[in-house]
Specification:
With about 300 residues, this protein is an alpha/beta fold. Helix content is about 40%, strand content about 25%.
Length: about 300
């Protein structure tokens, strides 16, 4: 009996710990970029959707922007084509664009179903809907990579309308150019552009790594929090490379353009969003503005209401 009571009290303590975060971020917009292994593993996928649904139910205004790269590659292989990438961007000919849109739309509606199964109203859209994402053709170091879009404008009205009506928007990264041609968009780019446009309180990237390291081979060099200037110093110092380089650029760009904080989280960790947002310890890397008035020596006070 005493053991059972202790377990109940621990649950109560967890709820009390979460209270100041819930109070601070009530009615604030949080954009979650969802992809990687967390999307391809069914159990992790359900955990992420439960996390976002809980955020919605406790007063946040979440927006999901999802990828689908691994699933697109699988379907491209099914039609006998080989997936090709240049600088991390998928070479997208007309047939591949058709496959990508088909796959992303399916992923989108699957996520809508999962959210609604948990009792929250969701609406799945693509960047084509309501002129949400306007693009132009993107080149990779001057190389033509097909129907890959560079975002030139965001019209967030459709998102504001959905949020106002208490829906959870789920966005597929597809956009239109000035001639209404369809383009595939990097999901990180889409999430960053949307977060900037809606002045999100938070932008969370669910990735396949724990966060940022000063030295990837040294687990003791994990960085739990850094400013935009510190992030740029890491890049200029050659500490960041590969696929993390454009992701970190998106993070710093978002903070510079009005997003309060950006988080890089390991989507393979069950309930990573809740652990980062509602606990003092946190588990990922938080990127903040240079003029953030919080002491850089602290870790989780960045989430608490001002003292």
């Amino acid at each position: 009996m005493e053991k059972d009571m202790q377990a109940v009290l621990q649950k109560a303590e967890v709820l009390i710990e979460a209270l100041p975060y819930i109070q601070r971020f009530n009615r604030k917009i949080i954009v979650v970029k969802y992809g990687g292994s967390a999307m391809s593993n069914e159990e992790l996928q359900k955990n992420v959707i439960k996390d976002v649904t809980l955020l919605k139910l406790v007063g946040f205004k979440p927006i999901i922007v999802h990828g689908g790269g691994k699933e697109i590659s699988r379907w491209v292989g099914k039609v006998g084509k080989e997936a090709r990438f240049v600088n991390g961007l998928r070479v997208t000919d007309e047939e591949t664009m058709e496959i990508a849109e088909m796959v992303l739309n399916k992923v989108n509606k699957d996520l809508v179903s999962m959210v609604q199964e948990l009792g929250v109203k969701a609406v799945g859209i693509s960047g084509k809907d309501g002129g949400l994402l306007q693009v132009e053709k993107k080149y990779a170091d001057g190389q033509d990579i097909g129907y890959v879009g560079e975002i030139t404008g965001v019209n967030p009205k459709v998102l504001y309308d959905l949020l106002e009506k208490d829906f959870l928007p789920i966005v597929a990264p597809i956009g239109l150019d000035g001639n209404f041609q369809t383009y595939n968009i990097n999901a990180d780019d889409a999430a960053c552009a949307i977060a900037r446009a809606v002045k999100a309180e938070k932008l969370a990237f669910l990735t396949d790594i724990e966060g940022l390291y000063r030295d990837i081979s040294d687990k003791g060099s994990f960085i739990s929090r850094l400013t935009v200037s510190e992030a740029e110093e890491l890049v200029n110092g050659g500490y960041i490379g590969g696929g993390m380089l454009p992701k970190l650029h998106n993070c710093t760009s978002a903070v510079k353009n009005g997003v309060s904080r950006v988080h890089i989280l390991d989507g393979r960790v069950p309930h990573c969003l809740l652990l980062e947002i509602f606990t003092k310890q946190g588990i990922g890397t938080a990127i903040i503005a240079d003029d953030d008035n919080l002491a850089l020596g602290t870790r989780r006070d960045q989430f608490c209401p001002e003292n």
